[in-house]
Design goal:
CATH architecture of the largest domain: Sandwich
CATH class of the largest domain: Mainly Beta
Number of domains: 2
Strand content: over 45%
Distance between the termini: 91 Å
Length: 245
């Protein structure tokens, strides 16, 4: 009887030890399963188009039913959707949510945060994402003459969408032969083609130049320019501009 007591303790201790090992292994497996958060430049669906002191511009091309790797957005950015899409957005620390986008939709997103996104549609999710790298006090406090409004042009429209971080976003649509009257760009801007573009820019004091872009392309336009813009193509032209003050 005296020898039976330590045997009972051993029998009790063994399953407790086994349970502790199982719990520890489960916790370790859970920790190991957490995906790493990578930089946006390492995310394979983000393709860097160009960068400078003002912006860093990516084209995102996500296949149907595919998901991005978990990645950081360390800066505020503006993205322009190139076609209708249906996305699940999973932001770290928040519940996942669904979002539908239409062609040409232009959205400001404040950083920093980390997320992944899944393309729920049967077509590629294509976006131009413009990180705002220049955010000095003068830019942030700049007062534009107009930060929202729709202008009816000769053969087109200019819709000023919003101003965020001092950057003014606008949606320009021109029918064939449509003209944007003479105007001045004090600072540079990003041009994002929603459709194929075949434009003529008549620059004051320098003459005419042709601007041709394919749908989904983006380019950097220098400032200190006064010009008119004409759609010399045979199709409607649509583009988004992101202009610095």
């Amino acid at each position: 009887m005296l020898e039976s007591r330590p045997m009972k303790k051993n029998r009790l201790f063994v399953p407790l030890l086994a349970s502790a090992i199982v719990v520890s292994a489960a916790l370790a497996a859970g920790q190991a399963a957490a995906p790493p958060i990578i930089e946006i430049t390492a995310e394979p669906n983000h393709h860097l188009l160009f960068e400078n002191q003002y912006v860093r511009v990516f084209k995102i091309d996500l296949a149907p039913q595919a998901a991005m790797l978990l990645h950081y957005h360390r800066h505020d950015y503006i993205f322009v959707v190139l076609g209708p899409s249906n996305i699940e957005n999973d932001i770290v620390g928040q519940a996942p949510f669904l979002r539908k986008f239409h062609e040409g939709e232009t959205v400001f997103v404040p950083g920093p945060f980390a997320h992944t996104a899944k393309n729920l549609s049967d077509k590629p999710f294509q976006v131009i994402a413009v990180e705002i790298m220049k955010t000095d006090p003068a830019q942030l406090s700049h007062k534009w003459d107009e930060d929202r409004g729709l202008h009816i042009l000769h053969g087109g429209t200019l819709d000023i969408l919003f101003v965020k971080d001092g950057v003014r976003a606008a949606d320009l649509q021109l029918s064939p032969g449509g003209v944007v009257p003479k105007h001045h760009h004090n600072q540079p801007h990003v041009v994002i083609a929603i459709t194929d573009l075949n434009l003529r820019s008549d620059i004051e004091g320098k003459g005419a130049t042709n601007v041709q872009l394919k749908a989904g392309e983006a380019t950097w336009a220098k400032g200190d320019v006064t010009h008119t813009v004409t759609n010399v193509g045979s199709q409607n032209a649509r583009l988004i501009t992101l202009e610095f003050p």
